[in-house]
Design goal:
327 residues; Jelly Rolls; Protein Transport Mog1p, Chain A; six-stranded antiparallel β-sheet; five-stranded mixed β-sheet; 10% helix
């Protein structure tokens, strides 16, 4: 299911999707090595605020890896990651270079401001990697700046861990080539950003008979040319939660500027807020709209529009579903 218009505490944790990039070559187990997943506990994000106690172990560059040691007790260490805007990175505590039995959590904060890295992680994962290790296949950084990648562990085994950062798209790709013809868009669902969630919630409280949803998807894109709106729309409609819109015979295509007048008045503040949140130019953004209507009985007419918003420079797809019904 899509992540429906809410960010609740740590809901960003673990909502990662598959993306491109070369997988790590994992060595075969040796000397009785086994992968055990039943005995370890969740490694949560570090308690906030953590600026006063979190050890900053060094810098992490895209395309490189660092090695640390867990010591003899549960703890956290942070690494500074500096990136240009619209960089897409895969982060992983790799099996290769990490001691057997180590149980990790992986969290990303930032960008850094005069107040620090913030209290809530942008991305997080417990054990999506090998065994009990952590992996974020896709982290998209909308703003340029310094971020903090935090590794935590639940068991101090005095063993090494290896943290790797790989470029999977966006500004970190050196000499990108044009996208192949008909290149598909592979979507990964993420929670909606807090500012957009607040704007959406306020608008939804305005009228009982008009309600909207806003879902966020990211896609890894390592090419010099933009993804197509048709490819983004095909990826959205392939998801089961949007199957009701597949039969629209004549969907409309709009510039982002023209899309504003198609939004119900109380939801129009979302129009600029989306661009501001993801650092996208209105000239690049495009919208494809699908319509359906149905009735649930007398005075039960429903009208729904699915608006697929492609933000090609920032590598996001926003799905804005606008609904109205008789009362």
């Amino acid at each position: 299911m899509a992540v429906r218009s809410a960010v609740l505490g740590m809901s960003a944790v673990g909502l990662m999707g598959a993306c491109g990039g070369q997988p790590e070559q994992t060595p075969a187990p040796e000397g009785g090595d086994t992968v055990t997943t039943a005995t370890q506990s969740l490694v949560p994000a570090p308690p906030a605020p953590f600026d006063s106690y979190l050890y900053i172990a060094g810098n992490l560059s895209v395309g490189s890896a660092v090695t640390g040691n867990t010591g003899t007790s549960a703890n956290y260490e942070g690494y500074k990651l500096t990136v240009p805007a619209h960089t897409q990175v895969a982060l992983e505590v790799t099996h290769l270079g990490t001691g057997m039995g180590v149980d990790t959590g992986l969290y990303v904060y930032g960008p850094k401001t005069q107040y620090g890295y913030g209290y809530w992680p942008l991305y997080g994962d417990d054990d999506s990697g090998y065994g009990e290790l952590s992996k974020l296949p896709l982290a998209t950084f909308n703003q340029a700046g310094e971020y903090l990648v935090v590794v935590g562990w639940s068991n101090g085994l005095a063993k090494n861990y290896r943290l790797q950062a790989s470029c999977v798209g966006g500004a970190c790709v050196a000499n990108p080539s044009p996208a192949p013809a008909n290149a598909p868009v592979t979507l990964a669902a993420f929670p909606l950003d807090g500012t957009l969630n607040a704007v959406l919630g306020g608008a939804n409280a305005y009228r009982e008979d008009m309600y909207s949803f806003l879902d966020r998807y990211d896609f890894a894109w390592p090419y010099s040319t933009h993804a197509s709106l048709d490819a983004a729309a095909a990826a959205v409609l392939a998801r089961s939660e949007y199957k009701g819109y597949r039969n629209d015979p004549s969907p409309g295509t709009y510039t982002y500027a023209a899309f504003l007048s198609r939004m119900y008045l109380q939801f129009q503040p979302l129009h600029q807020a989306i661009l501001d949140t993801y650092g996208e130019s209105a000239a690049n953004a495009q919208v494809k709209s699908y319509f359906r209507e149905f009735s649930t009985g007398p005075n039960g007419d429903n009208w729904r529009t699915l608006n697929i918003i492609l933000l090609p420079e920032s590598r996001h797809v926003l799905v804005y579903e606008q609904t109205a019904h008789e009362i």
